[in-house]
Specification:
Blueprint lengths: L18 E9 L28 H4 L2 E6 L5 H10 L14 E9 L13 E11 L20 E3 L15 E7 L105
């Protein structure tokens, strides 16, 4: 499976292996990208993947789901809510808003003080359970399927947002107000890390195709190329390596000359990562 299949492409789920999606959640406020920026230890021998380095407060509020790039937010909501601990989603759940977004490393940023990389987010969409036309069902046998109870962006897919296998999905859960009204969409804007988290407001130097020579750029480290946890070289990824493909292209697009194809590369990780980045 390609790391970033094209939106709208037909995927035969009977013959195509799903991938492992890590979904992190929080109640009543968003997860900020800087919370996922962690300095790697000097010895990474026993580190299974990057997510194991995250703070326990974030790891404890996460689920793992096997799915496909054409998974809709409606499907994702049904899967996600079915495995949440009791009490996370209000009961009844009608009027609960779920806001989804992607969180992934900024491959154009430089490594920062403390060997931490910069992470960014991208909106996926929002769904409301029940919506304005919902009716509460006293008999569970008569209740509608979760996917039939959603309003908003339930039809949007992961591939439509240029999801790359290995990206994290974050979900903010907003229960209805005391009057039963649906909470409005929160303002999309990242709160900076405390004391700038070492970023210091410095912008990245120019790069070709988003590749860089720093540890967190596409040239190495936790980025998508080179060594360490990246997609290529001798690190955990074990992928194609060899530097940046030539030409002009953006994240999520197939690089010129082949780029992300369907052949597995390297050792791989659980859920069909196929040797790509392990987080």
């Amino acid at each position: 499976m390609a790391l970033q299949p094209e939106a709208g492409s037909n995927i035969d789920r009977a013959t195509t292996a799903p991938f492992l999606l890590r979904l992190f959640w929080r109640q009543s406020r968003p997860l900020d990208p800087w919370e996922f920026s962690v300095a790697p230890p000097a010895d990474t021998t026993n580190i299974p993947d990057y997510s194991s380095l995250l703070p326990s407060t974030i790891r404890q509020q996460s689920v793992q789901i096997y799915t496909w790039p054409n998974c809709t937010l409606g499907e994702l909501t049904a899967l996600f809510t079915s495995v949440l601990p009791q009490g996370v989603i209000p009961s009844p759940s009608v009027g609960t808003r779920l806001v989804f977004k992607l969180i992934f490393p900024d491959t154009r940023a430089t490594i920062v003080e403390g060997n931490r990389g910069k992470w960014i987010d991208k909106p996926l969409g929002s769904v409301v359970i029940g919506g304005s036309n919902a009716e509460l069902q006293d008999d569970p046998d008569e209740a509608l399927d979760m996917k039939d109870m959603l309003e908003g962006d339930a039809h949007k897919t992961l591939a439509g947002a240029r999801f790359v296998i290995g990206d994290y999905v974050a979900c903010s859960i907003y229960p209805p107000g005391q009057d039963g009204r649906v909470q409005p969409l929160p303002h999309h804007g990242n709160r900076g890390p405390p004391r700038d988290g070492g970023y210091g407001g410095r912008g990245p130097p120019p790069r070709e195709n988003g590749y860089g020579g720093g540890d967190y750029g596409r040239g190495g480290g936790y980025g998508r190329g080179g060594g360490g946890y990246g997609r290529g070289g001798p690190g955990y990824g074990g992928g194609r390596g060899g530097g940046a493909p030539p030409g002009d292209w953006r994240r999520g697009e197939r690089p010129p000359g082949g780029g992300y194809d369907d052949r597995p590369r390297g050792g791989g990780y659980r859920g069909g990562y196929g040797g790509s980045r392990p987080y």
